[in-house]
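hey so u asked for the seq, here:
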Amino acid sequence: MLTKGDDFPLHQSAEPIAFAGTDRNFYDRYFFNGYAPDGSIFFAAAMGFYPQLGIVDAAFCVLIDGVQHNLRASRRSGGERLDLAVGPIAITIDEPLERLTLTVAANDGPLAGELHFTARHFPILEPRFTRRNGTRLFMDYTRMTQNGHWSGWLAVDGQRIEVGADWAGTRDRSWGIRPVGAAEPQPPPQGNFHQFFWLWTPCNFADRSLFFHSNDDGEGAPWNRRAVLVGGTGGERHFADPAFAAEWQQGTRRLNKLTADFDRSTRLTLTPDGPLFAMSGLGYTHPIWGHGFDHGDLEVAHDSLSAAERAWGNPLAMHVQALVRAELVDGDAVHQGVGVLEQLFVGPHAPTGLNGLMDPAA
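ran it, structure tokens below
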């Protein structure tokens, strides 16, 4: 059950707000992405709270003209959970679960903006993600996901870009336990995980939204998989165990096409159509700006990734989001839309032909 309170980073246990249970890996995060209707500009943002580590970090990235510009910031939190600003990056909850504002103040880097997110529907609640490594809890978190429209503006190197209501995107809120901060000094006796297969596909159509995700083990068995189709009136259709097929780009672990069958009459086809966004810009798997790392009282940094630096083989570009053309066949109707295909594939996955740790697909 989701309520307006879930839009605030206050998830925890029976303790006072400043104390989030006993697991040092507890986190509470916002994520956003958005894109121009022609796919020429893609942006993404994140803000994460790590109460047990006393850290809050944020990032804002814009992909334009083949270059991904990254702004990252980190500070110590002092236990405060309602200060939704880290350096130049701030979030305002205008109306919980319906409207939020993302602000990037002028700074010594190339990025700035004021972006308003308006939801298309009530957020969906994804199945709880729980994964153990032997007796060690590796992941245990909840996520809500929501498509919407953007308005406002952003700027890159002083060039102001107006963002209209025809810009679509997705935002999510997740909270619970994931590996964050410095690596734990004593891994489980059987070692850390060396396999992770992750698909996530939020899609926007004219009169509906679609969400499909899958976490699989090396044999291809899903430990968390679900598809949800949200109609224009907000009604939800859930599909518990969709089947999917992957078509790989030769010599990589990147998808050339993904098809998913939700039932006998409902099929989704996703075809990447544009440059890839590297999730390391938001801190995911980044060796220096990974989530929850301590950079002192306040640290702000900027960098960029060229198209060549986002090519397959760079560790900073193994976890990516691809802007996709989406086709949904639902009974006798065919719907065309846009969305993203997030992909992170480490280790084997028998059904799609992945072997080794990072061997390219056959």
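The chain has one domain: 4-176+194-352. The CA atoms of residues 267 and 286 lie 35 Å apart.
lmk if thats what u needed
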